[in-house]
Amino acid sequence: MDGEFSASGLQAIGPALQGVVDAGDLSGFVTLVWRGGKVVQVDTIGRRDVEGDKPMTRDTIFRIASMTKPITSVAALMLLEEGRLKLDDPITRWAPEFADMQVLKAADGPLDQTVPAERDITIEDLMTHRAGLAYGFTSMGPIAQAHETALGPALGTPLTPDEWMKRLGGLPLSYQPGARFHYSHATDVLGFIVARIEGKPLDRVLQDRVFGPLRMTDTAFHVPPEKSDRAAKLYRINPETDVMEEVTFPYYASPPLFAAGGGGLVSTADDYLKFARLMLGKGEVDGVRLLKTETVEMMTADRLTEAQKAIPFMGIPFWLGQGFGLGVSVITDPVKQAWMGAGNAGAFGWPGAFGTWWQADPAADMVLIYLIQNSMPLGPEAAAQLATGQRMGGRAALPVFQKTVYAALGG
Q1: What is the pLDDT of residues 175-234, one digit of tens each?
Q2: Which carries the bigger pLDDT value, residue 351 or residue 152?
Q3: CA neighbor of 78 nearest in space, from 200, 186, 208
Q4: pTM of the entire structure?
Q5: C-alpha–C-alpha distance, residues 120 and 141, integer Å
Q6: Dihedral sign of CA atoms 18, 19, 22, 23 in order
Q7: Contact 360, 279 (CB under 8 A)
Q8: Contact assessment for residue 347 and residue 329, using Cβ atoms and an 8 Å cutoff
Q9: What's the pLDDT tens digit per position in 79-119?
Q10: Cα–Cα distance for residue pair 334/144, rounded to 1 Å
Q11: Which contacts (CB < 8 Å, 24+ apart) does range 346-349 have?
């Protein structure tokens, strides 16, 4: 997209989002717009700690939840380039816990009514969420509760990686491997496979391969004590009182035993910008190259079939005008996709369960980053609201940001 930003258009972002904070829908925001080699707008709105009256700042640390997934996927693709794994490799090569899997006859049916898996899960199945694995919060019926019982909460399990992999491998799959997109623990499994190949914990792998080279100094699976004051607290709307309240969800003070490659990272707007610019630069940023151009092009190309995209995701027609590559979604038709956000064909990114979101748009040479801390109960009844919020103000805030930025381009 050609054109320059309208200064007044960009200045409209802050007041639009301030109204959401003033209404008590969300505690605050940090948003960032990068285009054409520079940061053109940063807005810090509301408070990272409401009770302590501490404002949002540009360096506020957020739980980025599933924005972790593209980073874990990049680490796996680095191993692919080194010939240490292939997309069509069966994961049983490194994760024998997933041999001889059973598949539910009905995804919401009894756990003892299964058929054998027609083939092994592959690395590509994990990266495209077509492994047949599940999350409790994306599932209905007995398998949803079975995940909670066997694995603990979706974020913050007390299990070791090996015990967790064993328990997950002991549950039946919801669908046949490769059959359909079903959002799941697949990227957690991918992360632990990467760790097994590397022979060290995932947090060390990501530090050595991604965070260190990109100088992402505030991105990790924990918040050390000297940074704890910068960490945003988590909030929700109490459904009984309709008032925002803090949710107790402590940050790890040291690297956790269970480094969740599907959702465990914390980061800041400027740190994640480095990763997003790496992706926008097709594997290179500021003279540092982590992936080949063709690898990033493969990662950001839609791999879902039309039949798979016809199936609703989180209860909504999520795939209208967009598809999914290797760890990121990608816009395929901006007109059809416009009902949900804004962006050109080829723009890619992925949200997080606490309301965080990012997008890199090659056609506009632009990166957008949107960070909030809005707790959603990770149960099936809330699945359709994961990327936005609970009340209308919270749900509307992300598309308001997206559409305001794009409206300011050339305006």
Answers
A1: 999 999 999 999 999 999 999 999 999 999 999 999 999 999 999 999 999 999 999 999
A2: 351
A3: 208
A4: 0.96
A5: 24
A6: negative
A7: yes
A8: no
A9: 999 999 999 999 999 999 999 999 999 999 999 999 999 99
A10: 34
A11: 346/300, 348/279, 348/300, 349/70, 349/276
